[in-house]
Every structure is written in C-alpha cells, then in structure tokens.
Amino acid sequence: MASTLGLGSWKWFEGFHNATRFVSAQMGRLLGSVPDLEPTSADSGGDKAQPGKLSILQSSLALVAAKTANMGLGFIFWVLAARFFSTSEVGLTAAAVAGMMLCTQIGLLGLGSSFITEFSRHRHNPSNLLSTTFSLVSAASLLVGFAFLLVASLWFEHLRVIAVTPAYATLFLTMVVLGTNGIFFDQISAALRRGGQALTRNLVSQGVTLGHLIGIGVFLPGAGPMMIFSTWVTGGVATCGYGALQLVRNLPVTRIRPRIDQTIARRQIRVGIPNHLLTLFERAPGFILPIVVTELLSSSTNAYWYAAWMMAWVVYMMPIQIGMTLFAELAKHPEGLWRLVRHGIRSSLVIGSVCALGGVIAAPWILGILGPDYAAAATTPLRVLLLVTVPFTFVQAYFAVARATGRLREALMAGGVSSVVGIVLAGAAGVSYGLTAMAVAWMGTQFLAGAFALIRLRSLARRPSTVGVAV
After folding, report:
1. In terms of CB atoms within 10 Å, which end of the chain has fewer, N or C?
2. What domain range includes position 225?
C-alpha cells in the first residue's frame, strides 16, 4: 500500500507541476502586453541587474505558482489523510489547521505588507528592519495562539482537546509561530522580486510534510488528529529553515537578531495594521467557517466542507495574488495604477473563469479521489463556491485600489460588512439546511460585495485621485 500511495503521490505531483508551468506560461502570454514597470537605477540602488532578481511579471507569476503549488500539494496531503484516517479525524485536524491559520493571519499584524513599503528605504541596510519584523510577528503570533487556546478551552467542545493536551498545545503554538514567519518569508520574496524562491520553498515544505504524513499513515495508522497535525509542524520547520538559507544568500551582509527597533516598529504597525484588517476581513471566513461547522455540526461534516473550500481556494488565489502584486508595485510605481488594474482584472477573469469551469466539471471526480463520501457530500457546495471567483476578482482589485488611493476606511467598512454577514448567513444556513445552503449563502454575499466593488472601481476610474500607499 505504501508503495502504491507513494507512486500515486509522485504522479500527482508531477502532473500538478506540469499544470502549474502551463498556467504560468499562459499567464505570461495574457499579461505580456502589460509594460513591465522597472525601477530606475536611482530607485533600486543599482541592483536592477542583480542575479536571480526577476521582473515584476516574472516574480508575480512565480508567486502565483508558489501559492497554487502550495494549495495543490495541500490537496494531495488531504487525499492521503483521507485514505489513511477516518473522516472524523480528518475533519478535526482540518479544524485545527483552520484555527492555526486564523492565528497566523492575525499575528502577522500586516507587517508583511508594511515591510514591502518600508524595504526601499532600508534596502542598503535591512538588518534592523528584518530583525524588528521577525521579532514582532513571532511575539504577536505566540500571543494570539495562546488566546486561541484559551477560547478553545472555555467555549469549544471538539477543539478543546488542543488546549487541554499539553503536547497538542505545544505543537499548535509552534506551528502558529512557524506559519506566521512562513507567510512573512513570502512577503520578503515579493519585496526582493524573487518569487521563484517562494515556489521552491513551498515545494520543499510540502515535500517534507507529505513524507511525514506517509510515514505516520504506514507505520502509525491509528495515530489520531494530533499526529496528523504534527506533519504541518515539520513542514513549517522546513519552510523557515530553507527560507533562512535563501535570505542569507540574497542578503549576505544581513544579521538578524531577536530585537525590536522602536522607531521602525511604530511605523510598521501604523502602516501595517489598517491594511491588515482588510486582509483579515478577506480571509477570516475561510478559517472561521470550518470551526463553525466542526462545533455546530460535526467534525465529519467539516471534512467535507474543508475539502470543498480548499479546492475553491486554489482558484481564488489568482485574484488574491494579483491584488497583492498590485499593492506591492503601487508602493514604487503609483503612475501605473489603472493600466495594471485593467490588465489584472482581465487576466484574472480569463484564467480564473477557465479554472473555475474546469473545477465545476471535474468536481465529482476530484472529490472522488478523497473518497465516495466526499464526492457525494461536497460536489454541489464546491461548484457553488467556484462561482465566487468572478466577484472575488473585482473585490480584490477594489481592495488594492483602496489601499493605493488612501480609501482604507471605505474598504474596511465594505470588507467588514461582507465578511461578518457572509459568516453569519453561511453559518446559519449550514446549521439549518446543510452544506449546499451554506455555500449558496456565502456566494450571495460575495456577489453583492463584487457588485459594490465594480461600481466603486468604475466611479474611481472616472475621477483623478492622489495615489499613495495609505498609512
């Protein structure tokens, strides 16, 4: 069985790698008409021709490929987990992973985005900036992790086991810190225009995680949710360890120590938190809804929901990454705003719609890889969730423009309302009518948010605006 699973996993990896290369090539053709905004030597400090540094387009494509590869190999992880372990064990682990990811997003404090905007002024001596950011996100994520364990111990039923089991709690806190720093490494890659390193880093991490999972599944088949979760920790160690090696090669004179420069910290927090609230409103539903399903329905039901959401999120990564890239480039080249927005929306709609259509058609077969129960329970919810790709494109473009033009308050209100209403309606629909109704309720709120975003984009495009990263 081990050899069969190992061979099957490798074939999945090889096929996914080839598919990623194909999608990246098609994106390059679609976006090839966008003039690449290269910095002048004065802007870049003379590092324009630095070896390994990619163009904006190449780095963006590599970052998209990195996120897509991470999600695709994550799918293989859950395929193997579903084959080795029971549905309830997989569902409970998925809820723990969702809680961990929620903590990493909160603990990041937006410091990854503020690092991108601050890096240009610290380019020649980034040691203090890097040391401060790593120290802040590590401390913040640890505090958030402790807060989650406290909430779980007091109010959760199924996830309470994480808080009351010392070994599980230790693994959870460790993964929260590692996961937050892993996200920050991706932001560093974006700032350095080395998106290819994010792809390599994610492939290494997922390879380690899959190897650990296969080992547990073969030799410890009754290990349980805590041991399944431990595979994420080994992957997190691989991410941060390999990321540190990459950072040493990129910035050989940099010395990173656990210290906080108060001046840098104040500015980073002032820039980062308002922008990060918008990111939290965007991503929190994906982490909160699995917890809601686990606690109010069952861990087995969450296994089905998480499978559908995870597959839909692979497609969502297209508009999300384009929005992140727009924000990163506007910090340096605000004059290209609307040209980049138009091309980004067009490319995201074309590629995202093709991927979503493919997912709608192939949903029962893809979910069937996890098992017949997954296909029966999650096919329709997945198809509904994939339709959200279209409004999500406009929402992400609107968020990027709002950040760039100093309209954060407006975007925060829109994002907050969309997130809260979406979670409440989807949760209520799920408890009352099941997962399909849950997906439909979520889709409805996102189409309303997308309509609002499109109206605001058209309105802003018709008026002159002062472009500058909101602080």
Report:
1. N
2. 2-461
